[in-house]
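Hey, I'm writing a tutorial for new members on how sequence and structure tokens pair up, and I'd like a real worked example in the thread rather than a made-up one. If someone can provide the structure for the chain below, I'll link this post from the tutorial.
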Amino acid sequence: MQHKRGGKMPPLFYSKETEMSHSNNAYSPKSINDIVYGSDTAKELVSQLVTGLMPFPFSGVNGIIFYGPNGTGKSALARILPAAIDSFGAPNAAAVDYNFYKITATTDAKELIEKIAYQTQFMPLARFRYFIFDEFDLLNPRYLPSIKSVMNCDTSVFIMTTNSISKIENSIKSRSHLIAMPFAEANRWVPVMQSVLLDQKVLAPSEQYLCNIVTNCKYDARKIMGATLRLAFNLRSAGKIIPTTTQTNDALMIAA
């Protein structure tokens, strides 16, 4: 979840509102390597699928299901995958069109499936046609067999997220790679938080202090990033600013 390099850097002093607005895009993950994974197994499998080290789609398997609690990066990773898969994981891959569906209890499943079935009749402009279903388990179970049918299209990739893998029909799971997304341990977040604080030009506190923030945020990615930016604002207000002459290697010194 690193800052996007290049372009205009944020000013040294600005309001909290400007800070939070800047954060919305600057610190959102842009590649599969920006995700803070709670599992090395998940990270490795995603990399293998994207780079083609593990053929995908292959042998009737053209789905990916990310499952785990809220705040583990499932939705963010799902949005990143189309461009990553299409480019075999190339850096700075061009954006790829994808169809994103936020599933709720009121989603018209019949209309949704009809729309997808229609789209799969045509050849995609990219390597594949990509469909993302966020909170897939909320889809009316009556229509899950229909999803299984549209997944038979070998020119489409289906990416799903869910908090309840047990609610997903076995026939859909058998057509998909199942990737568990647990919470990341606090120490996995420390380098990311330090990078954000460095980008904000403030002195980072101790690693244990940052780990405590992660724990207080209950390991939720959204809360952790928000807390890190609030910390940067507070450190700036307290004068804990990196001197302009400080070298990058010294920038992560522990604040006094």
